[in-house]
TrEMBL record:
This is Gnk2-like domain-containing protein. Keywords: Repeat, Signal. The lineage of its organism: Eukaryota, Viridiplantae, Streptophyta, Embryophyta, Tracheophyta. Residues 23-123, 131-241, 263-373 form the Gnk2-homologous domain. Residues 1-22 form the signal peptide. It comes from Artemisia annua (Sweet wormwood). InterPro entries: GNK2, GNK2_sf. Pfam families: Stress-antifung.
Length: 394
């Protein structure tokens, strides 16, 4: 088998893989539980569900409603769609759910753009695994590609699970893609994973882990598939299907699930340190980037920046390494840390022993050099905030 090559970069290709699960928003999957025939209870269900309309998009894509303390309903819209599509999906799902589950105390409906459910029990902040469903494309990758494709998808879902689980109280969403190069073909896998934001970090992680497991069981090598649980869903495809960035505002909250890893690039100096210095130089640079990552990640909502230098004494020479690492300040602490960790990993792969290099991601960058290149202190004020970039070693 040819060695695996997974590139987190969006490639332009003339190959059009027109094989994907339908992106129509009018399909519906329904699951019903616990029979009931009480008219009053049915009225409460209807009241609770209809109270959702008009409120979901304005609350960042998730809303819950309770009627007579006996029935709770929730609606979750896909985190990347616009307000109109969100409300349209919810309005479509409610009468269909009532029609398909007319005499039940608990039910869920999954559409392409939303999940709507109701229950006589407590469902807000509770991880529900009583039911799930799946859809998948009948088309598969070639037999020789299955292993590489599945491994790349697995690595992508692990990263997106982490993104979604670390989201805030308004949105728990992760999306991104990975490009698989192997067997003479280039395939890009796009994926989205989302939880209802009332779940805790661990509950969200568990729900998406379950969804990923189901994908492994049902859909190995399939070019597109979806798995739905009451609290979360996973969707992937060989076609781009999501809006980036999301179209619904998170009500002023820092956007979660928008750490972009779809592309990166690098530059490096052709000059290298002497062969005998490579180990010491690389170790010193690694220690410096660890400290600067922590500095940047702990920055505030105005600036996430870390810079500093370290001096390496070895092999009769003294070398100073200057470095700067920065994230877009909308990222959470963990997202910033992850972005800069990826950048540091790339430096280790491409540039071991190089005297200077840079790695760029959409949300962050890393730069180091054997020459001083940054202003200390920064020349742009952080609106009175404590500066997150300080010289560590001078």
């Amino acid at each position: 088998m040819k060695p695996k090559s997974i590139v987190l970069i969006l490639l332009t290709t003339i190959i059009n893989f027109n094989l994907t699960v339908s992106q129509s928003s009018d399909f519906g999957i329904y699951k019903c539980k616990n029979n009931t025939s009480t008219n009053v209870f049915k009225q409460d269900i209807t009241k609770s569900l209809t109270s959702l309309t008009g409120h979901v998009a304005s609350h960042g894509g998730f809303y819950n409603s309770t009627a007579s303390t006996r029935v709770t309903s929730t609606a979750l819209c896909r985190g990347d769609i616009g307000p109109e599509e969100c409300e349209k999906c919810v309005k479509t799902a409610i009468p269909s759910l009532l029609r398909n589950c007319p005499n039940h105390a608990e039910a869920a409906a999954w559409y392409s753009d939303c999940i709507v459910r109701f229950s006589h029990g407590e469902i807000v902040g509770v991880l529900d695994t009583w039911t799930f469903d799946k859809l998948y494309n009948s088309a598969s990758v070639d037999k020789g590609e299955v292993s590489e494709f599945s491994e790349a998808l697995s690595e992508l879902t692990v990263k997106l699970t982490d993104l979604a689980a670390n989201g805030g109280s308004v949105r728990k969403l992760g999306f991104g893609n990975v490009t698989v190069v192997g067997s003479g073909l280039v395939r890009t896998i796009y994926a989205m994973m989302q939880c209802t934001p009332d779940l805790s970090k661990e509950m969200c992680r568990k729900c998406l882990f379950n969804a990923s497991e189901e994908i492994g069981k049902c859909c190995r090598g399939r070019v597109a598939a979806r798995v739905f649980y009451p609290n979360c869903f996973l969707r992937y495809s060989n076609e781009h299907f999501y809006n980036d960035p999301p179209l619904i505002s998170s009500s002023g909250e820092a956007k979660s699930g928008v750490l972009d890893t779809w592309t990166f690039d690098k530059l490096y100096n052709s000059a290298s340190v002497d062969k005998g210095e490579v180990s010491e130089f690389s170790e010193a640079l690694s220690e410096l980037t660890v400290k600067l990552t922590a500095l940047a990640a702990n920055g505030g909502s105005v600036r996430k920046l870390g810079f500093g230098n370290v001096t390496v004494v070895g092999s009769g020479l003294v070398r100073t390494i200057y470095a700067m690492m920065q994230c877009t300040p909308d990222l959470s602490k963990e997202m910033c840390r992850k972005c800069l960790f990826n950048a540091s990993e790339e430096i280790g792969k491409c540039c071991r022993g190089r005297v200077a290099a840079r790695v760029f991601y959409p949300n962050c960058f890393l730069r180091y050099s054997n020459e001083h290149f940054y202003n200390d202190p920064p020349l742009i004020s952080s609106s009175g905030e404590a500066k997150s970039g300080t010289d560590l070693y001078s």
